[in-house]
Each structure stands twice: as C-alpha cells, then as structure tokens.
Amino acid sequence: MEPHSMAPGGAQTAQTAIDFGDVSIDSFQFYDSGGYSQQAEYATPSYDVGLSGSMQHTAGYSNRADTAAGRFLEGKGFGWLLEVQDGDEEQLPLLEELDIDLKDIYYKVRCVLLPLPYFRLKLSIVRESPDFWGPLIVVLAYALLSIYGQFGVVSWILTMWFCGSFFVFFLARALGGDVGYSQVLGIVGYCLIPLVVIGLLYPIMSAIPLISSIWGLVGIGWSVYSAGSLLCVDELESKKILLLYPVGLLYFYFFSLYSGV
C-alpha cells in the first residue's frame, strides 16, 4: 500500500515507503572516530615553528632556550642546537665514571701486605692490571703521615714517586724486562703500604731509638720484598739483585722523609 497525502490545492500525492528491515548497520561501514583520533595522536609528530619561521621537530626532545644565548640561537633558527633528548638513560655511579674499582684496589693491597706464597694470592694482578687511583691514594696517605707541619713534603713525595718509578722503569727495560711505566708506577705506589703501616705505629716505637730503627728497617725490607715479588718475574728473575738495589734506595729515601733521618 502506498499512503496518500493531501498536497496544497487539494491534489493527492503518492508517497513511497522504504523497508530497512533487511539492511544491517555494518553494511554502511561506519568508523569509530574516537579510535581514529587516538591513533592519529600517536602517529602524528609535533612540530614547533620558531621565530624565524622554520619548523622544528620536538618529539622526544626538550628545548632549553631560557637564556639570552638560547633565545638568540632560537631567533636565528639554530634552536635545535639546544635540544636535549628526553631519555631515561641511567647515570653511571661516580666510581665507575672515574674507573675506580674498590674491590680490585683492596685485593692489590692484600697482595702487597701478604706477598708470601703461603697466602696463595695472585700477585701478578698488580703488574698485569695496573691502575692509577689505588697507588695515588697510598702515596697521598704516606705523604699525609709525613707532613708534621711541612706541607711541602707532600709535593716532594709525589715527585719522588713519579721520578723514582721512571728510574726503576728505565733500569728494568735496560735489563730486558717487558714492563710498562704504568705498571712500575702502580707497583712502587702500592708497595708504600708497609711504610704506611710502619708510619702509623712509629710514634709508639719512637720512645726507644733502637726499636724504632729496627722497626723502620722492617718496613723498608717489607716494601722492597713486595716490590721485588711483583716486579721481578720472568726475564727479570735472574737479575733481581740489580733491580732491587735502586728500589731499596728509593724506599729508604721515602722513609727518611717521614722519620727525618
């Protein structure tokens, strides 16, 4: 049936009815505007337009133009020089930044204090893996013990450490040893630890001059023996006496700076 309606003027017009019963809403292929806008938000990078009209990509970056120089660069179109990436990069600890391994230093200190084979320590690690901070700490500790109102002794002990190590290095190479300056520098520095121990106990022994002198010789011999065990290996084993004599003089001079002998 086609319904009729009255048009203006009394005329009847026919109207056609459309049945939507067999048509599903999916056939019109409507899209979810909310999901589309969310995808577009992630897919579309953001851009900033600088004062010079240049477009700059700022996705994942922060611009630090809060200074006069920064505003000047931004105005000239060089604001990208101030961009810093906003990453979650982990900051390394200070000891790792300075390449300081406290466990390694502690093990090397044990090797110097206990150089006898009975303790079964790997003495070669002091020579094969040289470092700078451990020996420097030991030399500074000994220098601080030697001050007694003479602050200039600190710089002199550091100078003797560098110069004396170079002399021992030069002699070791002349004798055919395969050692580097950094290795000798580390060994000579670490082997001051016995003198540091002697220096801590020396004021107690100083009441009796004979005992204090014997105590000082024990410290010098301890340091020389540790240095010889760490330095005179392989090709220098048969020439140990030639190398230990200047090493002994060096440590005797170190001790004289402390005791004033």
Automatic annotation (TrEMBL):
Domain of life: Eukaryota
Membrane topology: Multi-pass membrane protein
InterPro entries: Yip1/4-like, Yip1_dom
Boundaries of every Yip1 domain copy: 125-256
GO CC terms of this entry: Golgi membrane; trans-Golgi network
Keyword RNA-binding (UniProt): no
Subcellular compartments: Golgi apparatus membrane; Golgi apparatus, cis-Golgi network membrane
An example Gene Ontology biological process: endoplasmic reticulum to Golgi vesicle-mediated transport
Keywords, alphabetical: Golgi apparatus, Membrane, Transmembrane, Transmembrane helix
A family per Pfam: Yip1
Chain segments annotated as transmembrane: 132-148, 154-172, 184-204, 210-233, 242-260
Primary role: Involved in the maintenance of the Golgi structure.
Family according to the record: Belongs to the YIP1 family.
Name used for this protein in its record: Protein YIPF
